[in-house]
Amino acid sequence: MIRSELVAKLTEDNPHLTAKEIERVVLAIFDSISDQLSRGGRVELRGFGTFTTRSRDARTGRNPRTGEAVEVDAKRVPYFKPGKEMRQRLNVE
What we know:
Elements: H1 3-13, H2 19-38, E1 43-45, E2 49-56, E3 59-62, E4 69-72, E5 75-82, H3 84-90
Antiparallel strand pairs: 1-2, 2-5, 3-4
Helix pairs in contact: 1-2
């Protein structure tokens, strides 16, 4: 599901709100999550999961086109760990 599909679904489920209002709410939520992660924090949504960041060390990579060695800088990457309820819903027999 992409953001526009999410907005369309929420608009369908909440006919008293306009698509513009729902778009602003969705963007505000995503911006809040991004801001918290950029500050090194974590975001926990009960029943859904937890967003955190993980550090990746600098390394020597390879350019896939040329095979040339390329230095890759250290960086932080987002990480999502699904919650217990999410895992249970995904593994229903």
